[in-house]
Amino acid sequence: MNMKYSNKTYEDILNWLDTNLTQDRYIHTLGTVDTAVMLAERFNLDVDKARIGALLHDCAKCFSADKLRQILNDTNIVIEDSELVNYKTLHAPVSAFIAENDFGVTDPEILSSIRWHTLGRVKMSDLEKIVFLADKIEGKTRDEDYRAMILKILDTQGIDKAMLECMRTTIKSLIDRNLKICNQTIDVYNRFLDS
Q1: pTM of the predicted model, to two decimals?
Q2: Torsion region of 178: left, alpha or beta (phi above 0 gives left; psi -120 to 50 gives alpha)
Q3: Which residues constitute the domain of residue 94?
Q4: I need a surface site. Which of 48, 134, 172, 186 has the fewest CB within 10 A?
Q5: HSE-CB for 140 with a 13 A CA cutoff
Q6: Helix (H/G/I), strand (E/B), else coil: 63
Q7: Would residue 51 be called left, alpha or beta, if left means φ above 0 and alpha means ψ between -120 and 50 degrees?
Q8: Residues in Cβ contact with 105 at an 8 Å cutoff, skipping those fewer than 6 apart
């Protein structure tokens, strides 16, 4: 299948991901694609944008911390100082870079959905929210009860309230694991709390 927003075919991207991701992360990616497509249809968004954003959202996830830092140092990727507090978030800007440079994705909204799928940002587009949520609630590797709860919030209260609950859960998880919290995460949580 040709991809509308990439210079590679769907099969080429799947082969690359199968080689560069762990099996669990590959399965997670497929689940994220399914969920992003479903959410895009539900919210009348561009399904092809959601598909490619979800497909490439974690393409750098299995790179070592050293490789991620090296790519950041060798390129013009702009990151906030606060993003450096937890190396686990560095795959998002690097994944957007790879999407653009290795897979020919030039659409700014798609690249932004990949870039911000981990931390979120204060003024997120609906596509960014869809990829963010799909990553958290996909049906192949994520907790079924959590998925059902977020889908219910989506149905009854809307996308911003679903985002708020995801941000709340993320912050609780970071606290429980004694991990640092990026300032941006707090800003995003506060933004959705006010919506």
Answers
A1: 0.95
A2: left
A3: 10-142
A4: 172
A5: 16
A6: coil
A7: alpha
A8: 5, 6, 52, 56, 99, 111
